[in-house]
Structure formats: C-alpha cells, structure tokens
Specification:
- The chain has 498 residues and is mostly helical.
- The protein is built from 20 helices and nine strands.
- A hairpin with a 2-residue loop joins strand 6 and strand 7.
- It starts with a strand and ends with a helix.
- The chain has a three-stranded antiparallel sheet with strand order 4-6-7. Strands 1-2 form a two-stranded parallel sheet. Strands 3-5 form a two-stranded antiparallel sheet.
- It has two domains: 194 residues, Fumarase/aspartase (N-terminal domain) (Fumarase C, Chain B, domain 1, Orthogonal Bundle); 292 residues, Fumarase/aspartase (Central domain) (Fumarase C, Chain A, domain 2, Up-down Bundle).
C-alpha cells in the first residue's frame, strides 16, 4: 500500500503504482490540510472577492469576472474546452503515474480542492480506470493543460477510459466500479488542469528506466571488453581517485567486479597492445558521466513530485490566495533534455563497441561473428540497426527546451515545451534499450570464440543469462526476435551485481 501525503512520494513508489499496480491510500493528515485550504475558497465565494481561477476567466480572459451562480459551470467549461489533445494515448503505466502524481500534489493542501477530488482519483487508480490521455498538445505552461484536462474529463464521467482491458465511456466504467462522477466546484477545474504531471509521469518513469540502463551498459561494456581482449587496467581505483566524479568511480568499480577472476584477461597480460580504444578504456568516464546526469534529473523529479504546482495557490494559515507560476515546466524540460543527451551518448559508445566486435579489422574475432563469412552474414545487420538508432537519437537529443512559442493571446509568452522533452526522452530510452540488447548479443557471441577461457565471474553470469534467452548463432537466422527477447529481459542484466 502506497500512502500519499503530498510530501514524501518517491520515484520507486510511483513506479510501483504505475507498473506493478500497488494500491494507494491518502494519509489522514492530508485530509486536514485539504479541508483547511478549501475553507479559504469557500470564504472567498461568500465574501464576493474576485480571485483568479475561482470566479474569473482564464489566461487572456482573466479580466472577465464570473457571477457566483456560474462558478460551477465555469470549471466544467474549462475542463471540456481544454480536452483538446491529439495523438496516440499515453501508456497505461504513464497514465497511472500521472494520476498518482496529480493526487499527491492536490493532497499537499495548497490547491483549495475538496478531499473528494483526490479520493476520486485514488479510487479510479485502485479500480484500474485509466483515462485515455492523448500524448500531444502540451507546451508545458500553464503546465500540461491538455493532458490534464483529459484526466479531469474522465473524473467527471466524460470522455473515454480503458477499464478491464476494454475501451469504454468514462461514465460507464465509473458506474461499474461504483464510483460517482465528480461534480466540480469552484477552483477545482483549474486545480486539476494547472501543473506538470504529464511530463512528470513520462519523465519519472524514464528516470527509473535510465537507472537500469546505466547498469546494463556497464554489464554489456564489460562483456565487450572481455570479448575484445581488452584490459580492466584503466579501472584502477587510483586513476579515479584523482578525478573523483561519483559516477566515474562507481562504473570503474563495477567493471572491476564484473571482470574479476577473468582467465581471458590473464591470458593476454603481456600482449603488445599498449592501450584499448576509448569505447573500452573510457567507459568509467562516459558511463559515469551519464550516471551523474541521471542522479541530477532524479533529484529534480523527486522535488517536483512533492511540489505545489498549480495557480493560484491557497495558503490556509494566512487565508491568502497567491498568484504565481509554479506550473511552468522549465526545470523539467531542461532536465529531460539533459538526460536525453546523456542517454544518446550511452547508446553511441555502445554502438562503437558493437562495431569493434563485428569488424575483423578491429578485433581478433571472425568477421561479423560468424565462422562462415561470405556464406553467412552473421551479425552484420545488428551493427547497422544500432547505427540507425544512434542516428535517430542524435536528432532526438536536440533540446526542446530552447524553443518557445507564445500562447493564449500572448499572455503565456514563454513556455517550456517540457512535454516534448519528456516524449523525446522516452523515445531515446527505447532506442538505447535496443542498442544495449544488440551489444549483449554481439558480446556473448564474441565470447564463444574465446572458449575454453572463461571471463570474469560477473561477465560469465551475464553470458549465462543471455544464453538462457538466446542460443549461440551457428548459422544465419532471423535476429529480430533475439533482439526483442533480450530487450524484454534487460532487467535481468541490470540487477546482476545486486
């Protein structure tokens, strides 16, 4: 059971709910905070004060005052008009992450919503009612308006959802689950729409995937190092102690552990080669730099998960409603662009090792890792596929955050494009997963030609896990299923040193 209180949600908990469907409940103390902030809104309505988002129009229309009797219709109109997203829907895991993140932020108690709003979200999560949320249409300020509007639309019983594996109307799914559609009150529509939860959901799950990929890259790199008769001398801790970046030191230590006890490295201890190529020798410096970027982005997302990000914010202790811009996604847009660039590099250095494995001019292995070159093409095409993915990543690594086009009659004259950054990150992650799966396949095939010499204990374990998934290549066969199978089991290699 994951308990949300607006202050302590972790990326691991988010993933547990999004992927593993852990149930969710609201902390008792969160109810008191939500009720206190709601009383401020109710007092504003009673007094007739004009407050943005409560009894005014939105964006460019903020100067239009709405009469008290129309405030409920105002919130309903807001949700319906902003549900204008397009494109393929978010995945189930991303949708669940978005729902949880939104519920957690509202539970923080600065949004002025009734507890029933958060309770409805949590009940939908636990029942497995997943709004169909188009992935395109957000510019990342005033947050993810279009995606969040589609989420809110399902809460009020409109739009479509996925429920029990079927696409159906939200009203029908809510009825079957015994959940009453939410009747929006003043301030609640804008509280559901203002925020960064779509980009947070995609990006947070991306960070979790990136952490595992960093581990897989070390394993694949260590396998390639052994298959290419490389040395782990460049991982000597003294080298990294004098340039003590945390990720660099961590990767060097991991590669030493993976290659510990290697008969292959011992067999060429006195060979004439002076130094390995950079893609082998500089793994600590490159893989380690990626790890440091992941840590930075993880910290950014962890803070955002537990931040009040809508507008206006309600401060119950003073009864004030303050206008600001916490919905602006710049901090996330920059972070996700940074992470996409780092992961593109992780794929790029992996492809260079793949090339060395299949190219007989750069290795002591058979051409394209086949014993019958000419008649058989072996793993030639795997390197070509990796190159295509690296090339695509170069395009995707161009930052979305450096662009801004004004919206809402130029009231919103600088936007973050953070959802685009998150979406590109997701695509880069998928490409790097395929690249690393290809490297694992090629490295394992390369090790076949060095038998009976055994690699280090960690590399040997990785080799055995791969061979449990995919047999040795003895003659040409369709390799696409092999790549897909390994990619689907990358977690088995990420936890190798746990």
């Amino acid at each position: 059971m994951i308990v949300i209180d607006g202050n302590s949600l972790t990326l691991e908990q988010l993933e547990a709910v999004a992927v593993d469907r852990e149930p969710v409940e609201i902390a008792p103390e969160a109810f008191a905070r939500m009720e206190a902030s709601r009383r401020v809104i109710e007092e504003i309505l009673r007094s007739g004060r004009v407050v943005y988002g409560v009894n005014t129009g939105f964006g460019k229309l903020s100067g239009v005052t709405i009469p008290h009797e129309a405030t409920r219709q105002l919130q309903l109109n807001l949700v319906r008009s902003h549900a204008a997203g397009v494109g393929e829907p978010l995945s189930e895991a991303e949708t669940r992450a978005m729902m949880l993140a939104r519920a957690n932020v509202l539970a923080k108690g600065y949004s002025g919503v009734r507890p029933i709003v958060v309770e409805t979200l949590v009940r939908m999560l636990n029942a497995g009612i997943h709004p169909l949320i188009p992935s395109r249409g957000s510019v990342g300020a005033s947050g993810d308006l279009a995606p969040l509007a589609h989420l809110a639309l399902a809460m009020i019983g409109e739009g479509e959802v996925l429920y029990r594996g079927e696409r159906r109307s939200a009203r029908e799914a809510l009825a079957q689950a015994g959940i009453a559609p939410l009747q929006l009150e003043a301030k609640e529509g804008i509280a559901l729409l203002n925020g960064t939860q779509a980009m947070v959901a995609v990006g947070a799950l991306g960070v979790q995937r990136a952490k595992r990929l960093a581990d897989v890259a070390d394993v694949a790199g260590a396998m390639s190092l052994e298959a290419l008769h490389g040395t782990n001398a460049a991982c000597d801790p003294r080298i990294h102690a004098v340039r003590p970046h945390p990720g660099q030191r961590e990767v060097a230590e991991r590669i030493l552990r993976l290659t510990e006890g290697s008969e292959i490295m011992l067999s060429h201890k006195d060979c004439p080669r002076v130094q390995d190529a950079y893609s082998l020798r500089c793994m600590p410096q490159v893989h380690g730099a990626v790890r440091d970027v992941i840590r930075h982005v993880e910290n950014v997302v962890s803070i955002e998960l537990n931040s009040a990000i809508d507008n206006p914010l309600v401060f119950a202790e003073t009864g004030e409603v303050l206008l600001g811009g916490n919905f602006h996604g710049e901090i996330l847009a920059l972070a996700f662009d940074y992470l996409a660039m780092a992961l593109a590099e992780l794929g790029a250095i992996s492809e260079r090792r793949i090339e060395r494995l299949v190219n007989p001019d750069l290795s002591e292995l058979p051409p394209f890792l086949t014993t019958d070159p000419g008649m058989c093409s072996g793993m030639m095409l795997l390197q070509i596929v990796a190159v295509s993915l690296v090339g695509e990543n170069k395009v995707l690594a161009h930052p979305a955050s450096v662009d801004s086009l004004p919206t809402s009659g130029n009231k919103e004259d600088h936007v973050s494009m953070g959802m685009t950054s998150a979406w590109k990150l997701r695509q880069v992650l998928e490409n790097v997963e395929y690249i690393l799966a290809i490297e694992l396949l090629c490295a394992a095939q390369g090790l076949e030609y060095l038998a009976p010499l055994r690699p280090g204990r960690g590399v040997q374990l990785a080799y055995e896990r791969l061979r449990a998934l995919v047999p040795r290549l003895t003659e040409d066969r369709v390799l696409a299923p092999d790549v897909e199978r390994v990619r689907a089991h990358l977690r088995d290699f990420a936890d190798l040193l746990i």
